[in-house]
């Protein structure tokens, strides 16, 4: 059996359509336009690409996009001043500080300076705590996108065995919380997990977020399982020509698709959903700020 492909690019387009329709209504009925501020410190070329793509998609769904590009040598005080201004700005409903920050800046300090209501990444300590205690939170975009794809694919997740490989604050831990929220039996596995292939083989839902190319092998997968590949790894691709590269996930896709029931590809899986969920979160933040009804199907 060959697995169903979960088309993240197509799914992200439907999420953006929902967001755009809701934004159009907000503008017409309430006279409010959601706004997203993206802050990029330094000039990492990969970050440049994401920030440009986010800006374009933000405008594409009818929202306002505010980009702040600061030099790599920006001081912590300068960055905190900008965040304070964005926190106070009524036209800004979402704030994203692109990570990683240059090493002289304290990431937790900076993230926790964002107004939690505007923290569309869901990285603020208050949102982390809210998610963990089942209170209304801003939910990190990548896990939210994964949850949307899983619900779409499987319907009800209740009682399923979910194994998350990876324990990062931005993917593994919040993903586990969301799966628990949907009543899965959740295991968080990682590099020190004993008998990892056996643990993975118990999963009805397997989420791979380890950041190692082709780490998860085909024989780690339970036949029929749903596999979500969060990895985005750039590896050399000499077959495309000298010095060329290609993107691969954390899962050996060719082997896994022969075993899994459904699987996300890389590229075209989780990545596009991450940006779509950023737009969804910005809309949600705007609705909450104004006391408007929240968009349906776009939150956890
Ligand atoms: N505060 C913060 N929040 C983030 O959400 C955040 C961040 N910092 N720093 C960088 C990472 C990376 N990230 C991606 C988003 C979309 C794709 C994406 O759409 N990828 C395409 C491929 C793009 C390509 O071809 O390079 C895909 O998977 O199909 C990838 C990576 C968000 N990040």
TrEMBL record:
What are its GO cellular component terms? cytosol
Reactions that this protein is recorded to catalyse: (6R)-5,10-methylene-5,6,7,8-tetrahydrofolate + NADP(+) = (6R)-5,10-methenyltetrahydrofolate + NADPH; (6R)-5,10-methenyltetrahydrofolate + H2O = (6R)-10-formyltetrahydrofolate + H(+)
> Which residues lie in coiled coils?
none
GO terms (molecular function) for this protein are:
methenyltetrahydrofolate cyclohydrolase activity; methylenetetrahydrofolate dehydrogenase (NADP+) activity
Alphabetically ordered keywords of this record: Amino-acid biosynthesis, Histidine biosynthesis, Hydrolase, Methionine biosynthesis, Multifunctional enzyme, NADP, One-carbon metabolism, Oxidoreductase, Purine biosynthesis
Q: What is its EC number?
A: 1.5.1.5, 3.5.4.9
Cross-referenced Pfam families:
THF_DHG_CYH, THF_DHG_CYH_C
Q: Where does NADP(+) bind?
A: 166-168, 232
InterPro entries from the UniProt entry: Aminoacid_DH-like_N_sf (IPR046346), NAD(P)-bd_dom_sf (IPR036291), THF_DH/CycHdrlase (IPR000672), THF_DH/CycHdrlase_cat_dom (IPR020630), THF_DH/CycHdrlase_CS (IPR020867), THF_DH/CycHdrlase_NAD-bd_dom (IPR020631)
Q: Please cite one Gene Ontology biological process associated with this protein.
A: purine nucleotide biosynthetic process
Q: Which intervals hold domain Tetrahydrofolate dehydrogenase/cyclohydrolase catalytic?
A: 6-121
Q: In which pathway does it act?
A: One-carbon metabolism; tetrahydrofolate interconversion
UniProt superkingdom: Bacteria
Record-annotated Tetrahydrofolate dehydrogenase/cyclohydrolase NAD(P)-binding domain positions: 140-288
The record's subunit annotation is: Homodimer.
The record's section on PANTHER family has: C-1-TETRAHYDROFOLATE SYNTHASE, CYTOPLASMIC, C-1-TETRAHYDROFOLATE SYNTHASE, CYTOPLASMIC-RELATED
**What is this protein's function?**
Catalyzes the oxidation of 5,10-methylenetetrahydrofolate to 5,10-methenyltetrahydrofolate and then the hydrolysis of 5,10-methenyltetrahydrofolate to 10-formyltetrahydrofolate.
Q: Which HAMAP family match?
A: THF_DHG_CYH (MF_01576)
**Family the entry assigns:** Belongs to the tetrahydrofolate dehydrogenase/cyclohydrolase family.
Name listed for the protein in its UniProt record: Bifunctional protein FolD
Q: Which organism is it from?
A: Celeribacter indicus
